[in-house]
Amino acid sequence: MPPEPEPELEPRLQIIKVVREDDLRSQIGKDGHYFDLVDFSRIRAFHVPLLHRSSWLKNLVLKFNVSVSGCGPNDKMGHSVLAGHCLPVKRNYPVSLDFIVLNEANRYVGMLFVKALSRPSDILPSLRSLAGFPTHEEIELYEEIKFEPVMCEAINIHDTFRYGQIQSGDIICYQKSPKPENRYPSINFFFQHVHDQKEVQRKVQALEEEVLVLKRQACLEKKKANMEYDELKLERDNAVRQVDELRDQNRHAILEFSLEDLEQATEHLSDVCKVGDTEYGRVYKGIIHKTTVAIKLSCSQSLFQQEVSILRKCRHPNIVSVVGVCSEASALVYEWLPNGSLEDFIVSTNNSPPLSWRNRAQIIGDVCCTLLFLHSNKPSALVHGDLRPGNILIDANYRSKLFNFGMSNLFLAPGTCPPNLTARLPYMDPEFLTTGELTPLSDIYSLGVIILRLLTGMPPLSIAKKVAAALETDTLHLMIDKSAGEWPYTQAKQLAILGLSCVEMTREKRPDLLTKVWKGIEPMVTRPFVPYFHSASEGSCAPAPAHFFCPISMEIMKDPQVASDGFTYEAEAIKHWLDLGNNRSPMTNLKLPNEDLVPNHALRSCIQEFLELQRQRGHIPDR
């Protein structure tokens, strides 16, 4: 059998890049490249079979009309680099040189063919012409040896090119002979400057890349934070939705009682169990499921329906809780509050002990918070409509709870005139009497009258005129209810001014409940920290003694000082009081005999001992 023919091998190829003068002109001086001539990665490459390399070069000369100045060393990619120039071929000039002129543009100006035995001085006119220099301009020539590190040697223009070992493809730089004031006195200085500039550019580029990376990281972090925020917001929205659902369930979680249940609880609605008889209906005290409750038989079905509707919408700590209803008897079953109403305390019904000024301030704050809750109801505000001490109940802790919603039905029904108008009239909004329209500002008017009553203990009729007159004559301290204890005069005066602003005859002049009324009341009823004394025998907590608190700042004193009125104040608070030019007592409003202050060491020692005891028992954190 004849042997199988061997497979033909693909011819070996060599990659050759042709550098033309156009490439030099387009690249030199751009992007900081002044002396490296060209970027080989941007030069067109040719794949040439090694066997046909010489014939290819002949065709290249004919095709591009170039003069091949030499086949230099390989570039960084291992490609052969062929330098060519679009000039007529001059075979009698064996040396071709590239020239760069050093001026403002630092540009490539061209290539010259010279004889090896000629001198640089012979081509000075041509160099001046290439650069556009004047005819007699003195110039200096340098040969670039290395760029990094900078190495450049001056050329003696009177030596031949061959003697100076200048060959084809060398780079010759030249410039005007520098003057003393020039920035770069020699090309070496300029080379170093360019080198430094490239280093700065490299660092700037590195910093820009780092900034870009940081921006990307920040963007990712922001996206991550936004995602976490969206997740948390979703969780919050779900939690709010669940709370709303539970609240809706609780709103409807009102027990339904039968008439028989009510009769059993009140001994068949016996007068013995009756505790009140008002325009809203009869109120009984009873026991249902071993729990003491208040049972109100509404005077009308419409009033019953309205109050049930309101109580289903709002649950608040300062609104009397409804336990259940009896539709058959139009009755509501409430929690039982043993202390009665605020009116009972003001007029001392059944010898009720007078409320202290602290309790009175707290009750005012409770009522204000409850009205804020009602008035913020959506889509429309809820108005109590009959806010007066008789409809404010007091629990065992002397906190207030609103009661008896629905005055609007009693007053707005055609042809009706509610009973007990005399008791209600001083608290009624004057504009309501003329327009028949109830608004949240109607409740603010009623609150103002309640504030003045708790402050003075006086009957409500014409109370605003009397308090206003006392403020004008500086005799308010004589009107303050003494049974409330030593009410700080500064607090009392603030309440008097606030109460008067609430009882303005026109609604437009009354203050906003949140930004004005509550802002004035809040400091009186809230403190950042109220210590409690723990009783080991009773296992319960009791508030700190009242005389530990400064009457001005309402906080436990750190540095108690006795003023000339005989009362003890926190040093910083009483000094600030005196610095404002006040010469009257913050407690009595009487003129101070002097502005002397005496440290109350005994009280300070008691307070420190008390606080240290609370820290040891863990009731307050260590400092």
UniProtKB/TrEMBL annotation:
<dbReference type="Pfam" id="PF04564">
    <property type="entry name" value="U-box"/>
</dbReference>
<dbReference type="InterPro" id="IPR013083">
    <property type="entry name" value="Znf_RING/FYVE/PHD"/>
</dbReference>
<feature type="domain" description="U-box">
    <location>
        <begin position="543"/>
        <end position="617"/>
    </location>
</feature>
<dbReference type="InterPro" id="IPR011009">
    <property type="entry name" value="Kinase-like_dom_sf"/>
</dbReference>
<dbReference type="Pfam" id="PF12436">
    <property type="entry name" value="USP7_ICP0_bdg"/>
</dbReference>
<feature type="coiled-coil region">
    <location>
        <begin position="197"/>
        <end position="256"/>
    </location>
</feature>
<keyword id="KW-0175">Coiled coil</keyword>
<dbReference type="GO" id="GO:0005524">
    <property type="term" value="F:ATP binding"/>
</dbReference>
<dbReference type="InterPro" id="IPR024729">
    <property type="entry name" value="USP7_ICP0-binding_dom"/>
</dbReference>
<feature type="domain" description="Protein kinase">
    <location>
        <begin position="269"/>
        <end position="530"/>
    </location>
</feature>
<keyword id="KW-0808">Transferase</keyword>
<dbReference type="InterPro" id="IPR008266">
    <property type="entry name" value="Tyr_kinase_AS"/>
</dbReference>
<dbReference type="GO" id="GO:0061630">
    <property type="term" value="F:ubiquitin protein ligase activity"/>
</dbReference>
<dbReference type="InterPro" id="IPR000719">
    <property type="entry name" value="Prot_kinase_dom"/>
</dbReference>
<dbReference type="InterPro" id="IPR003613">
    <property type="entry name" value="Ubox_domain"/>
</dbReference>
<protein>
    <recommendedName>
        <fullName>RING-type E3 ubiquitin transferase</fullName>
        <ecNumber>2.3.2.27</ecNumber>
    </recommendedName>
</protein>
<keyword id="KW-0833">Ubl conjugation pathway</keyword>
<dbReference type="GO" id="GO:0016567">
    <property type="term" value="P:protein ubiquitination"/>
</dbReference>
<dbReference type="GO" id="GO:0004672">
    <property type="term" value="F:protein kinase activity"/>
</dbReference>
<dbReference type="Pfam" id="PF00069">
    <property type="entry name" value="Pkinase"/>
</dbReference>
<dbReference type="InterPro" id="IPR051348">
    <property type="entry name" value="U-box_ubiquitin_ligases"/>
</dbReference>
<comment type="pathway">
    <text>Protein modification; protein ubiquitination.</text>
</comment>
